[in-house]
Amino acid sequence: xxxxxxxxxxxxxxxxxxxxxxxxxxxxxxxxxxxxxxxxxxxxxxxxxxxxxxxxxxxxxxxxxxxxxxxxxxxxxxxxxxxxxxxxxxxxxxxxxxxxxxxxxxxxxxxxxxxxxxxxxxxxxxxxxxxxxxxxxxxxxxxxxxxxxxxxxxxxxxxxxxxxxxxxxxxxxxxxxxxxxxxxxxxxxxxxxxxxxxxxxxxxxxxxxxxxxxxxxxxxxxxxxxxxxxxxxxxxxxxxxxxxxxxxxxxxx
Length: 253
Prior knowledge:
By secondary structure, the protein is α/β, with parallel strands linked by helices.
């Protein structure tokens, strides 16, 4: 499957509870300039038996490198979770500063597996992120395509919406316990709304209480303002744009 509208409709299935949060950016930018090969590639094997059961009132946030997070999301579909891709960086034929094109191609190659999962419309969500969305703090140079991105509270359902659909806790699946600055601000809002927030390793190991102590309203506003000054909004939605070359100036006799 490589028709972008059909592909989006599969990942954002009509009538599914969490479809309104699927980000359309990668799908809308799929065209002839971005080859969408469905050829076989070596895939990670995920054992999901240690993850919370679908009847436990749990939503998952997969905070791993993009392709790993997406593969885990589809593996969790076999357990009964619906993967919800939140990727918001524009892909680029030259790769881009964040390799969103590789994630876009994986959305294609995993589509058949997702289609066969037979998930109910109200299956609990596994929100899929790219832990490398801010490129590990690296800064693009002039001429590079800067498609770094970050998450905002509106990228996720509110605490009240989650609770109204039986979700009582969020478990962040990631390596290590330190939660990224943008995500911790989002999760602090959920915790304030009565949702328990835990963090667990991707091997299905035990979860522990997430440390959200660094979140604050002032810090959130300051951090987002500073980051957004450095990120490039795309006219097509999401984030992505070429870093301009510096203008040359001088005096002429």
